[in-house]
Design brief:
This protein is of the alpha+beta class. It is 47% helix and 11% strand.
């Protein structure tokens, strides 16, 4: 099965879904997955406002730049880096706009942080994020994360549990069923 999944480190639901995908891959699922950046900060820019893609002070953007540099230049470390950046934000409440925080989060993952820092500073990841974000909006009407893209159809899914491969597999089975547009619980039983 081939699919893409959008992410932004600001969103705990993106973390839940990303960890489920990574856990499934680690468990040997034969998925071909591409992680696609989507800036929630950009999604909230008023019409005609300035883009945030090159603004390292915009919420979440700097971490996305580092992640895309890793995805595209050191892909063998992307999974661990992806988990580490979500943890920096959601477990430790750290400022993922700060390069020092990002470097520290990535240090145990094996990423060559100096090489990736140079790539980030080159501006290449910012251009990639802008292009992929704009394509997601223009082509599939993506509005948030996590959105799964399969066979040219986008589906926004929020998982309540972190890293749950069984929940993900259940949802993946529905991605090719196009007779239902929306299924949303009004409240969750607790």
């Amino acid at each position: 099965m081939q699919f893409e999944i959008t992410f932004d480190y600001l969103c705990p639901f993106a973390r839940n879904a990303s960890e489920a995908v990574l856990n499934g891959l680690k468990d040997g699922r034969s998925w071909e997955v591409r992680f696609r950046p989507f800036s929630l900060a950009q999604a909230h820019v008023p019409a005609g406002g300035p883009d945030v893609f090159e603004d390292p002070t915009a919420s979440g953007v700097r971490a996305l730049q580092w992640a895309i540099a890793i995805r595209d230049h050191q892909p063998e470390f992307f999974a661990d880096a992806h988990v580490a950046l979500f943890a920096a934000r959601h477990d430790h409440g750290l400022d993922i706009k700060d390069d020092a925080v990002i470097r520290e989060a990535l240090a145990p993952t094996g990423v060559d942080v100096d090489r990736i820092a140079r790539t980030v500073e080159s501006g290449e990841p910012a251009v990639t994020i802008a292009a992929e974000h704009v394509e997601s909006v223009d082509r599939w009407q993506v509005f948030g994360v996590p959105t799964f893209i399969r066979n040219d159809v986008a589906t926004f899914i929020r998982f309540m549990k972190r890293g749950a491969v069984d929940d993900l597999e259940r949802a993946l089975e529905l991605l090719d069923w196009h007779e239902m547009n929306e299924f949303k619980r009004t409240a969750l039983p607790r």
